Amino acid sequence: MTPGWDGGVAKSQKGNLRFKGPERLSLDLAQALELPAASVCNELGQYPCQNVHGVALGGVDPYQHSVYETATVTGATTPIAVERTVLSACNARITLDVNTPASAVVFKGVTLTADGKLADAASPAVATAVTSLVRRAWLRDPTQDERDTLVRLSADVQATGASTPGVAWMQAACLSVFSSAEAVFY
Length: 186
Description:
- The chain is mostly helical.
- Helix content is 47%, strand content 2%.
- Strand 1 (42-43) and strand 2 form a beta hairpin.
- The model has no long low-confidence stretch (mean pLDDT 87).
- It has one domain.
- The chain has 7 helices and 2 strands; from the N terminus they run H-E-E-H-H-H-H-H-H.
């Protein structure tokens, strides 16, 4: 039977999703966000997250903890380890983009006001940044609804009273895209 095209995201023929694991997750983040692999996530500034959270991220640790095989299901701390790794990588990219806007990679052209808000959430630069995030994480263009939702997120973040709502929006958008099932599984 040949599957029909419904115009949406292609459906898997096998339905066999796999969690990326610590190495693939870290390397995918490094590549997608154009960061050195060593700067994706470091606990206490010195221990790579893929090593610290390796077993929680589906890896093995035969020498330290006698874990010779990956778990058949993800653990209770896996989502926390994924978010920790993703947020650290996002923060590294955002810091670079905000501090050196001329060489920005993801948030190129997104301007912040003196009080840290997005200058114009409806600007083409914000839409381009959202599209760039989605392409880098999901390897496809966002739907109009996905793009609009991520842009509207800026108003929700600003309503929280964050001291720099523009940067907080960048963090929230990056985290939501790169920690989604579409980005964490392959």
